[in-house]
Amino acid sequence: MSKPEIRISRFQDGYSWECVEREVYKSGQEVGRDWQGIVRQVLVGKDGETTAFHLRYFEVAPGGYSSLEKHEHAHVVIAIRGHGRAILDATAYDLNPFDTVYVAPWTPHQFQAAGDEPFGFFCIVDSERDRPQSVSSTEAIVAQAVGARGRS
Amino acid sequence: MSKPEIRISRFQDGYSWECVEREVYKSGQEVGRDWQGIVRQVLVGKDGETTAFHLRYFEVAPGGYSSLEKHEHAHVVIAIRGHGRAILDATAYDLNPFDTVYVAPWTPHQFQAAGDEPFGFFCIVDSERDRPQSVSSTEAIVAQAVGARGRS
User: How far apart are CA B7 and CA A117, in angstroms?
Assistant: First the structure.
């Protein structure tokens, strides 16, 4: 049996963790997807952990949003910082700290910051997962009708 | 494609979630394992979710502790309420809100409340996992030397 590799990641000022890289995505786009003002920190998933899942912390700057997308794998989100909004299919949900969200497979979804402070949340996903896809034009129209932002 | 089943679990006063059962384990023991003052809330894992992981929130009352145990599956813990201590193998680690812990396979581990308020944490585990085992007498002696509590 190989030696256990225990790891404690210490939380620090500014919603960062000791020895965890802050990956900044100011804005970007791929075919049919765009996003703005996102920082990602991967807490579990980059160091050969044996878990069937990865744990990431995302932070969305005021005015920012994740891409409107869908995929086979489900998301689990735990809001922890500030206030946000989840666009899920044809509904917008306000999110406050410690609210949790189960985003079922193939649900078109987008996360947005609400208000003047960053919106931060943990997002847990299967370690083996499909790539995000852009939503259909009908799904985009539906999502934008309830508040989705950006290109679609 | 079946209809997505989105779920928002709203956080409420008293560190509980709307429509989520609070499972209370005042104290108990099985062969070689005991625990005290634990409340569990299963946020993801009881409703046919497709994820390869489950999300639970555990709260340990002041003076309480989880069982000292080990298993093949890894744990990921996110401290969120109060202050606690993780006994991992031969080391005790203080835990403060938003510190995260990766408990590698087969690491003897116990979580304890520290101070006068409850210690609350999310614990993420693989949905398919082995049962916890009691630690060996040597592992128990080592863990108790660094602060593990209860029977072992």
Answer: 25
pLDDT band at B82 (very low <50, low <70, confident <90, very high): very high
Catalytic residue among A55, A86, A123, A125: A123
pLDDT value, residue A150 = 83
A53 touches chain B (CB under 8 A): yes
* Cα gap A138→A69, rounded to integer Å: 13
Residue B80: pLDDT band (50, 70, 90) is: very high
Predicted confidence (pLDDT) per residue in A81-131, tens digit: 999 999 999 999 999 999 999 999 999 999 999 999 999 999 999 999 999
Helix-then-strand count for chain B, H and E: 1, 14
Q: What are the start-end ranges of the E strands in B53-108?
A: 53-65, 69-70, 75-81, 83-88, 91-95, 100-103
Task: List the one residue out of B86, B100, B104 whose CA is nearest residue A9.
Answer: B100
Tell me, yes or no, if A13 comes closer than 8 A to chain B by beta carbon. no
- Examine the predicted complex and report whether its ipTM is higher than 0.90: yes
A19 is annotated as an active-site residue:
no
What is this structure's pTM? 0.94
Q: How far is A45 from chain B (nearest CA, A)?
A: 10
Q: Which of residues 58-117 of A touch B (CB under 8 A)?
A: 73-74, 76, 78, 80, 86, 88-89, 91, 93, 95-107
| B78/A122 Cβ within 8 A | yes
Taking residue A62's Cβ as centre, other Cβ atoms within 10 Å add up to: 14
